[in-house]
Amino acid sequence: MPEVDRRAAARAAVAKRRARAEVKRSLARGERTPSDVAAVAFADSQAVEASIRITEFLKSLPAIGATKLEPLLQRLGVSPVKRLGGLGKHQRTALMAFLRDYQSRRGITDRPQLVVLAGPAGVGKGTVAARILESFPFVHLSVSATTRSPRPGESDGVNYYFVDEDEFDALITSDQLLEWATVHKTHRYGTPRRPVETALEDGRPVLLEIDIQGARQVKLAMPEARLVFLLPPSWDELVRRLVTRATESPEDQARRLETATQELAAQHEFDVRVVNDDVTRAAELVVDLMGINKESYA
Ligand code: 5GP
């Protein structure tokens, strides 16, 4: 390996170790719940949470010492050398069930999260959001304001609040938007602030399905927001999905592909990346990331 690469790799390894230590500290201090750390590790194999060893993870939990560790690993059927991201399907289910039980015994509840679901056009954000709403209707899905016209089948107040340019200007100047952006270089879209705040005050998890420029603004305004980037299984699959969407002209499609290229490049700014290879699976991962305990609604 050339010297510069070696130094870069060493720096990256140090940064990752520090990040892992920070996650473990936040667990020990109770700033993050164990199920939340596991949710991130299971959703995104690149996340620092995924690289934490199961033994280190469990030892960071208050009241789990060295003596409890071995029998617990045996019960979960997990080898001590495993990292969270390397657990198999059944091991993940077993660990999550253990963590839920551990948390409920200790009176620890997950905080409902504000999750921003972003990703390139055609990746299936709408489908994943709809699937989440179907199973968990108490999730507040933000309805955006937009200056674009309704498409067939869309209605005002349901899909969007359809407003004209002057009305959109008024929303901006009266500070009623949490974020707004011009998307695909054409129309403006924005998230009404008040309904989001009200839902969070009521303890409801909130889902925003917005573009990347908007996601960045939300993170600045509310650093506790969790930015989730939905990825296509592959670039070819994304192109196929975009081209088979019949609603747009070839010019629109070309513009969307250009935007998609730029958007994919921004994925590393996000907290968690979720691959949408299967809608049910992607929706379940996002539900866990929203702090929803699925079992208590089963
Ligand atoms: P469409 O016109 O196809 O409904 O949406 C186009 C794009 O606008 C999508 O990528 C969607 O994520 C984004 N979008 C929708 N609502 C908002 C919003 O409130 N804010 C921002 N920044 N983007 C939005």
What would your notes on this structure say?
Helix 2 packs antiparallel against helix 12. The protein has 298 residues and is an alpha/beta fold. Helix content is 49%, strand content 13%. The strands form two sheets. A five-stranded parallel sheet has the order 2-7-1-8-9. The protein has a four-stranded mixed sheet with strand order 4-3-6-5. Strand 5 and strand 6 form a beta hairpin. The chain has twelve helices and nine strands. The longest helix has 26 residues. The structure holds guanosine-5'-monophosphate. Guanosine-5'-monophosphate binds next to strand 5, strand 6 and helix 9. Guanosine-5'-monophosphate (5GP) binds next to strand 5, strand 6 and helix 9.
What attributes does this structure have?
298 residues; 9 strands; binds guanosine-5'-monophosphate; alpha/beta; five-stranded parallel sheet; four-stranded mixed sheet
User: Can you count the helices?
Assistant: 12
> Which overall shape is indicated by the principal axes computed on the Cα atoms?
globular
Please indicate the percent range of residues in DSSP E strands (runs of 2 or more): 5-15%
Low-confidence stretches: none
Q: How is the largest sheet built, in terms of strand order?
A: 2-7-1-8-9
C-alpha termini separation: 52 Å
Ions, cofactors and other ligands present here are: guanosine-5'-monophosphate
Overall radius of gyration: 21 Å
Largest sheet: 5 strands, parallel
Structural class: alpha/beta
Number of strands: 9
Mean pLDDT: 93
Helix content range: 40-55%
The ordered H/E elements are: HHHHHEHEEEHEEHEHEHHEH
